[in-house]
Design brief:
Blueprint lengths: L1 H5 L20 E9 L2 E9 L5 E7 L4 E5 L8 E4 L4 H17 L4 E5 L2 E5 L3 E11 L2 E10 L4 E7 L8 E4 L4 H17 L3 E4 L2 E4 L5 E5 L2
Antiparallel strand pairs: 1-2, 2-3, 3-4, 4-5, 6-14, 7-8, 8-9, 9-10, 10-11, 12-13
Length: about 210
């Protein structure tokens, strides 16, 4: 089911309405909800330009899970005994409650590059946290296997640092990454400046963001 959303990369980021923050610093918003008398919390952390990630937490069960690209689907359970499937059921219930109570609104993500060839679909998003400090999230979608792989380039320096989801090795993913970076530069949608590869601002996808 998840892949059916991702294959077209019509990604909906979900961030939560909360207290306003300075436009020059990262923003943290928290939404609390209950399921069967158990209290859960979704924390949305966003950069000044809007990119960010969400964390689902439940104190008593020591549950912590992460939605690294805010597409409405948890990517990894960091702590606790819940499976990823169980955690996602909780997370998506929380998102539905947040929507029903007006705690999510739609806006636009501005730093995402999408490209595809016969075998793969790619999505590269840049997270600009402050002047000179950026990170990239790289998604590879395999068209034949209908699975996705997710990686981070912590310093946006063109080298992938960690595997967030999937079974492709960093070495193999790096080859894909370099191809996509080259294509983005060729299309003038990615800039290589001061040692960083940054997706330039555009308006490719609707997302949900804090007010």
């Amino acid at each position: 089911m998840y892949w059916s959303k991702q294959i077209g990369f019509s990604i909906f980021l979900l961030t939560l309405v909360g207290c306003s923050a300075s436009k020059n610093i990262a923003q943290r918003n928290v939404f609390t909800f209950q399921i069967s008398d158990t209290t859960y919390q979704i924390t949305s952390l966003n950069s000044p330009t809007g990119e960010g990630f969400n964390i689902l937490e439940q104190a008593e069960s020591n549950l912590t899970a992460r939605d690294i690209n805010q597409d409405g689907e948890l990517d990894l359970v960091l702590k606790g005994n819940k499976s990823l499937l169980e955690a996602n059921e909780i997370y998506q219930t929380g998102i539905k409650i947040a929507q029903e109570t007006g705690n999510i609104k739609e806006r636009y993500s501005t730093r995402k590059f999408e490209w595809e060839n016969e075998s793969y679909k790619y999505a590269l998003s840049t997270y600009v946290f402050s002047q000179g400090k950026s990170s990239n999230v790289f998604v590879i979608g395999d068209k034949s296997l209908l699975v996705e792989y997710l990686f981070t380039d912590i310093d946006a320096d063109g080298t992938l640092d960690s595997i967030e989801k999937g079974t492709i090795s960093l070495e193999e993913a790096q080859n894909h990454y370099l191809i996509v970076l080259e294509q983005g530069i060729k299309e003038n949608l990615i800039q290589h400046k001061e040692g960083q590869f940054i997706v330039l601002e555009n308006h490719l996808r609707p997302i949900y963001s804090s007010r």
